[in-house]
Amino acid sequence: MIPQLLVLLNQAQKKSSLSLSVAWRFWRTPGIFQGVYKVKLFSIILESSMAQESPKNSAAEIPVTSNGEVDDSREHGFNRDLKRSLPAGLGLSETQITSHGFDSTKEGVIEAGAFQGGQRTQTKSGPVILADEIKNPAMEKLELVRKWSLNTYKCTRQIISEKLGRGSRTVDLELEAQIDILRDNKKKYENILRLAQTLSTQLFQMVHTQRQLGDAFADLSLKSLELHEEFGYNADTQKLLAKNGETLLGAINFFIASVNTLVNKTIEDTLMTVKQYESARIEYDAYRTDLEELNLGPRDANTLPKIEQSQHLFQAHKEKYDKMRNDVSIKLKFLEENKVKVLHNQLVLFHNAIAAYFAGNQKQLEQTLKQFHIKLKTPGVDAPSWLEEQ
Fold first, then answer.
1. Cα separation of 368 and 349, whole Å?
2. Is the pLDDT of residue 86 over 80?
3. Secondary structure (H, E, C), the chain
4. What residues does 119 pair with on adjacent strands?
5. pLDDT tens for residues 183-200?
6. Mean per-residue pLDDT for 349-376?
7. Which pLDDT score is estimated for 364?
């Protein structure tokens, strides 16, 4: 009876009509199944439970071929049917569902790949490395230091070669002559400026002394009745001389300010451009020499990239040198025009003021200051406030 009952249970299990609760009831009934039959009933119950828990489709079944390998043709068929069932144009990723055995720790693995026109792009497993688009600031600084060091080395070698008379240098004869004249004129203008400042200091001391002497004569004129007129004449003369001296001092100070602006600002700015031009010339000659040395050497696969890079650097520094040379030429031209205009006015002012002062022509002296729009400060009077200026 027991073997017949097992046959019925097998048939029911194959037809998926065996209820797990009914099979479990047979298992717990004492005295019905013993020994091998009880083990057989346990396997039937296990297979029934697995069949009820697994999905009722062909994708969850893992058929095995005659070689013992897993036959995944039915699985691919299920995936193909799933693709066809998806509507086109949704932009979804292609999904493959792979089932594993019951002894596996994972029930399934879902692999997603980009859907490209019905073709599957297989993604490789492994760590994902994101490209670092942002450069490291430390590496950028290190690269700048390296380029600066290489450029400094080349320029220093070029300067030493020129000092020793071994290296050649590029010379623009006309421009170099103009630069030499400018530097010589700057020294001469600085000497004139220094002497004019000395004259201004001495004249200020003389005017200050004359003013004190005029005050002393005026005081004695009031206290000495017998010499009242004599002290009074001298007091008026010294005060007049002090006044004219202050007028001349204003003209000299205006001359000093204009020449100082010309020498220490305008000419100095041009000389700064000249220094940049000379630095560009040294760099140009350094890279020119480097390119000439490479061209004299052998040409092979190792030297050709170096020659091309040297040619590129030489061309860049040549363009910089040409630009700086043009800038210097333009600045020298404008400086010459500005220098002539400024010095012409200032020299006329200085001559007229000195001549009028020593000639005693007070009106001519005052007219000279008005001509150049020079305003004198009244001694002992502070500058007007901002409210008074308004």
1. 7
2. no
3. CHHHHHHHHHHHHHCCCCCHHHHHHHHHCCCCCCCHHHHHHHHHHHHHHHHHHCCCCHHHCCCECCCCCECCHHHHHHHHHHHHHCCCCCCCCEEEEEECCCCCCCCEEEEEECEECCEECCCCCCCCCCCCCCCCHHHHHHHHHHHHHHHHHHHHHHHHHHHHCCCCCCCCHHHHHHHHHHHHHHHHHHHHHHHHHHHHHHHHHHHHHHHHHHHHHHHHHHHCCCCHHHHHHHHHHHHHHHHHHHHHHHHHHHHHHHHHHHHHHHHHHHHHHHHHHHHHHHHHHHHHHHHHHHHHCCCCCCHHHHHHHHHHHHHHHHHHHHHHHHHHHHHHHHHHHHHHHHHHHHHHHHHHHHHHHHHCCHHHHHHHHHHCCCCCCCCCCCCCCHHHHC
4. 116
5. 999 999 999 999 999 999
6. 86
7. 87
Distance between CA atoms of residues 250 and 339, nearest Å:
22
Q: Cα separation of 75 and 56, whole Å?
A: 14
Q: Are 350 and 374 in contact, with CB atoms under 8 Å apart?
A: no
Kindly state the average pLDDT of the residues 205-218: 93
Q: What are phi and psi of 36, to 5 degrees?
A: -65, -35
Using a 10 angstrom Cβ sphere, with 0-12 exposed, 13-18 middle and 19 or more buried, the burial of residue 335 is buried
Mean pLDDT calculated for residue range 111-128: 45
Picking from 365, 277, 285, the residue whose alpha carbon sits closest to that of residue 327 is 277
| Assigned token pair, 155 | 């320029």
Residue 235: CB atoms within 10 A of its CB come to 20
More confident residue, 67 or 264: 264
**Residue type, position 64, single letter:** V
